[in-house]
């Protein structure tokens, strides 16, 4: 079967992301340590994040607002301006964090570039994701860059119609079973699953998934073998 397009997720597929968020979450929990354990504060933060997703979407800005709301819930009138400023500082760090490419990313894209149409499909805050793409230096490899509010089946279907690609000719590469892999499989596409060391709780998929159109890779360079053997 001929590949018509290959799309890559961005965060934790091409560059590190979740590790920075987990580092900041640890700092946030330490800041509130006199009000509860790290586990309890993290659980409260996740609860607030999930409640706020329909309003703020994904990304550092929504995470920062959720940290502020969590701190207010836990501390009440004891929440001081100095602590608010520290939390805002956490958010600004995430909005300007270094972009560290994962091993094999640039070599893999360089090998595929010119042989297949390459696309980037990510979700999150528009300005933040645009900044990451620019800072990564990888934008030159992609003929299409799409920053979505979410990555559901309907979002992939719309994208494929826009680039005139049938699902059976589409290969998605990503680290999230929930956002990158399963929605693409459900619409008839193919997906290469490249897990990252850390996974945000919202993206965790507990059930083991096996499917003839899901190709498990330990690192991104292995998709070259998948393409060679399967296509």
Judged by helices, strands and strand pairing, the structural class is: alpha/beta
| Number of individual domains | 2
Q: How many β-strands, per DSSP?
A: 6
Using only CA atoms, what is the Rg? Answer: 19 Å
The low-confidence parts are none
> Could you report the average pLDDT, rounded to the nearest whole number?
92
In spatial order, strands of the major sheet run 3-2-1-4-5-6
What would the principal axes of the Cα set say about the shape?
A: elongated
Assembly level: single chain
Strand content: 5-15%
Helix content: 40-55%
What is the CA-CA span between the terminal residues?
6 Å
Number of helices: 9
The CATH superfamily of the largest domain turns out to be HAD superfamily/HAD-like
Order of helices and strands: EHHHHHEHEHEHEEH
